[in-house]
């Protein structure tokens, strides 16, 4: 099975590293800066908050697929690990590097990016996947996992084979046939992405402040109300049921620290991917996350003023670029 990671940045390199260490053949399609970093450091180094540290070199690193006629139709599986707003324009590139029986797996947070491309690729096996944990790019080609969780993939024969390879290597991987609860449940957690960017604190520190947790709890309540109106069950990624999260987050500090010990058992360096975008002066994914709460809320007649205000705040930060 030939695998490509299209748009290998933080999560893409982490996924590539795990797949390579599991004995799979992996090619990265990435920016020149990422390629140089990986070559200079003799591979991708995966590290995590529990002390894991291993370096591995992918089979190939490609920065321009139009220059590589040898890759036409080559990949059996392509993981797309671009940011949401980068997905809609790559249909032709995906067609060039895959064949009729390839699986293309979209790993974006939020809502809207999958819909922006799926009609252009309707003859392929299109799947979705989730990265439930945080990945931070550190110097020297290190990709650092800061929170718990394993890659979660939509079920088909390719992803089942990938799951067994990852599990054999001790990485774990979850498979789900129905991905709707996975996507809706992940969005609940991603409501913290923008707030983490706004507070400009590591997630652990951010969540130790009552006021920060209250805003997150209000944003989550809105999404839970939308999901209830839409009659969608949310997948549970945390130890706590999704519907209990706003209540737990609203506890006073002393009680929160007791009850939500595991929620705070994360790397003190972990920050959201939106914080990384704001710091790098990149466009954020706020329209696909808090913006999706607002637009899906409108469909079901649920008011979402907190998420609307968060979208506005992030737009202002983006304009400072
Ligand atoms: N980072 C995290 O901790 C987590 C992220 N996620 C989600 O995963 C998805 C991916 O996020 P993340 O990995 O952080 O994103 P990154 O921005 O780190 O990675 C995407 C990479 O693709 C590059 N790229 C863009 N267009 C092309 C192209 N045409 N060809 C080759 N490379 C290209 C980007 O370069 P450039 O920047 O120059 O455009 C960037 O290096 C997002 O939806 C995010 O929300 C989910 C969980 C955790
Ligand atoms: C892991 C999590 C929820 C928060 O870091 C995330 O998805 C992100 O940063 O985009």
UniProtKB/TrEMBL annotation:
Gene Ontology MF terms: 2-dehydropantoate 2-reductase activity; NADP binding
EC number of this enzyme: 1.1.1.169
Ketopantoate reductase C-terminal domain segment(s): 179-318
SUPFAM superfamilies noted in UniProt: 6-phosphogluconate dehydrogenase C-terminal domain-like, NAD(P)-binding Rossmann-fold domains
Catalytic activity: (R)-pantoate + NADP(+) = 2-dehydropantoate + NADPH + H(+)
GO cellular component: a single term: cytoplasm
Keyword terms of this UniProt record: NADP, Oxidoreductase, Pantothenate biosynthesis
Domain Ketopantoate reductase N-terminal: 3-155
Pathway of action: Cofactor biosynthesis; (R)-pantothenate biosynthesis; (R)-pantoate from 3-methyl-2-oxobutanoate: step 2/2
Record-linked Pfam families: ApbA, ApbA_C
One Gene Ontology term from the biological process aspect of the record: pantothenate biosynthetic process
Protein function: Catalyzes the NADPH-dependent reduction of ketopantoate into pantoic acid.
PANTHER family linked: 2-DEHYDROPANTOATE 2-REDUCTASE (PTHR43765:SF2), 2-DEHYDROPANTOATE 2-REDUCTASE-RELATED (PTHR43765)
Family (UniProt): Belongs to the ketopantoate reductase family.
Name the UniProt record assigns to this protein: 2-dehydropantoate 2-reductase
């Amino acid at each position: 099975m030939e695998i490509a990671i299209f748009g290998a940045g933080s999560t893409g390199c982490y996924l590539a590293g795990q797949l390579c260490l599991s004995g799979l053949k992996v090619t990265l399609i990435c920016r020149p800066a990422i390629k140089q970093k990986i070559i200079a450091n003799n591979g991708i180094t995966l590290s995590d908050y529990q002390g894991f540290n291993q370096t591995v070199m992918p089979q190939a690193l490609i920065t321009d697929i139009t220059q590589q006629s040898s890759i036409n139709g080559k990949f059996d599986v392509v993981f797309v690990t671009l940011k949401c707003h980068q997905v809609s324009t790559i249909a032709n590139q995906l067609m060039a590097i895959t064949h009729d029986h390839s699986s293309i797996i979209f790993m974006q947070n939020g809502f809207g990016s999958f819909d922006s491309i799926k009609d252009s690729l309707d003859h392929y096996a299109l799947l979705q996947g989730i990265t439930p944990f945080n990945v931070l790019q550190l110097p020297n080609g290190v990709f650092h996992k800061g929170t718990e969780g394993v890659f979660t993939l939509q079920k088909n024969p390719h992803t089942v084979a990938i799951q067994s390879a990852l599990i054999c290597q001790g990485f774990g991987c979850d498979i789900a046939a129905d991905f709707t609860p996975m996507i809706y449940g992940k969005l609940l957690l991603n409501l913290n992405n923008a707030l983490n960017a706004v507070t400009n604190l590591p997630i652990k520190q951010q969540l130790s402040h009552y006021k920060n947790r209250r805003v997150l709890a209000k944003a989550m309540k809105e999404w839970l109300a939308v999901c209830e109106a839409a009659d969608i069950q949310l997948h549970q990624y945390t130890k706590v049921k999704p519907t209990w999260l706003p209540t737990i987050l609203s506890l006073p500090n002393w009680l929160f620290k007791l009850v939500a010990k595991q929620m705070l058992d994360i790397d003190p360096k972990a920050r959201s991917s939106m914080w990384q975008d704001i710091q790098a002066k990149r466009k954020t994914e706020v329209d696909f996350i808090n913006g999706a709460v607002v637009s899906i809320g409108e469909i079901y007649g649920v008011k979402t003023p907190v998420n609307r205000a968060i979208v506005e705040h992030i737009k202002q930060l983006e304009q400072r670029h």
